[in-house]
Each structure stands twice: as structure tokens, then as C-alpha cells.
Write a structure and sequence with these properties.
One of its GO terms (biological process) is cellular response to phosphate starvation. By secondary structure, this protein is of the alpha+beta class. The chain is 52% helix and 19% strand. The protein is globular. The structure holds adenosine-5'-diphosphate. Adenosine-5'-diphosphate binds next to helix 5 and helix 7.
Length: 270
Amino acid sequence: RILAEVAVSPLPALIGRGALVAILDRSVTEEAEQMRRDFVANVSHELKTPLTALLGFIETLRGPAREDANARGRFLDIMEREAMRMNRLISELLSLSRVQAEERRRPSEPVDLAALLRSVLATMAPAAAAAGVAVTAEGLERPVVLPGDADQLTQVFQNLVENALKYGRSGGVLRVAMTEIAHEPQLRGPAWAVAVEDRGDGIDEIHLPRLTERFYRVDAHRSREEGGTGLGLAIVKHIISRHRGRLRIESRRGEGTRFTVVLPQGLDRG
Ligand code: ADP
């Protein structure tokens, strides 16, 4: 970020280009190093919490609960849930690391985005029905083909729909709508926009800029209750960036949230 500014603004005559860039470069490296340390600390904490619970229950099963079949059953259920949480966290960490490693390579296989979205909604239909959420889809009737990675784009929309169901209101509505943008200035060309919208509790504005950070959650307790890891939107952000697209988040407390994914129509732009 800072380096880009240096490149466009004229340098003061007395400071050599190399010296200034070197100083800024080091601050960027330090920032990256701090982020790496925070990430390792977060991962360790997130893995340690379920692990501590597991060890505690093993201890209890060996001692006080040994003869109590009822308690044993309950404890095993909790242990299974904690183990599944660790499993999910590790899968998402691997997914995030794969996506980050591939970020520079722009995907180019033709993907029918409309068919992909219909298939995501079909997969999520049982979960939506269980939550009593009415799903509406718009603009998915005819094929919309763009260059992309079908598995990763599926992951993006599955995540957004899952979040809308998790944090939306039970008995509420979920709307998925695709529209064409003739010219998206930021992408310097035509684009497709997919909105995933819920009528849930919404998110306070101060949280919005940080929502796609790894492990950032508005309500950590609620996220854990829902089986969340805090990595979903970070993965979403990196996949969209790999597709040279944009993610827009709009939300109003008490009214709902809209995530809009904007993807360029062709490979030659953006
Ligand atoms: P998580 O695994 O916690 O769901 P995500 O990265 O998917 O992690 O989302 C980060 C946080 O953003 C969530 O913990 C939640 O606080 C908030 N969030 C995401 N989607 C929504 C939504 N549709 N409505 C309200 N809050 C949301």
C-alpha cells in the first residue's frame, strides 16, 4: 500500500529512492510478521479450547463418571462435538492456505454461475427448510458463463448462504439475486453481481471493515454455538480476490445483511 504511494509521488531530492523504499519496506515486513504471529496465536487458542474440553471429559470418564451410563452418553456427545469442531477448523485452515497459495494464478475455466448458484441453493434447501427460511432466487434462469474456479466459487456462495441461515432469523427470508452490471468502474468492465441477503439481526457498522479478517467474529459465543470457525469470510475474500472480483457488505442493525459478490465477465479486464 505504502510502496505504491511512493511510486507515484515525486521523491524529495535529498532522500535517495533506495533509502526511503527500504524504510517503508521494513515497516511492511514488520506488519506482516506481526500478522503472522497473531495468526499462530489465534490458531493455537482455537485448537486448544476444544482440546482442553476433550482432556477434561476423558479425565471425568476415567473417574467420577465411570459407573454412570447416563453421564457417559452425554459426555461422549460433547466430546464428539468438540472433536468435530477441531476437524472443521483444520479443514478450513487447509482450505485458506490453499486458496492463498493460488491467489496469484487467476482461474480461467468456463463456469456457469447461474447453474452453480442453483446447485448451491439445492444443497442448502434442507438446512433452509429446517430453519423455516423462505428462499427466493432471481436472475438464475439462463446460463451466465464466466472464467473461474467452480469449486472455489461454490465454496464462496455456500459460505454466504450458510451465514445467512446461521445469523438470519429463523422463519425469515433469504434472497439470492444475480444482476448484470454493464460497466463496473473498479473492475474497468462489465461484471456480474450476486447478492445474498438476509433479514437477520444485522451487523453494527464498526464491525464491517474487519469482518473478513481471519478469526474476526462479532459475537464469538454465537459463532461457536453455530459451529463457526471465524475463517469462512476470510476464505471468501481470498477466493474473490483470486477471481479479480469485489466483495461488498452492507448491513443495518435489526434489519439484515447483504453480501454482494461482483465478478468480472471476462479474462481480459480487471
Ligand atoms: P463464522 O465461522 O464465525 O461464521 P465467518 O468468517 O463466516 O465466521 O463470519 C465472521 C463473522 O461475521 C461471524 O462470526 C458473524 O459475527 C458475522 N456474520 C457473517 N455473516 C453474517 C450475517 N449474514 N449476518 C450477521 N452476521 C454475520
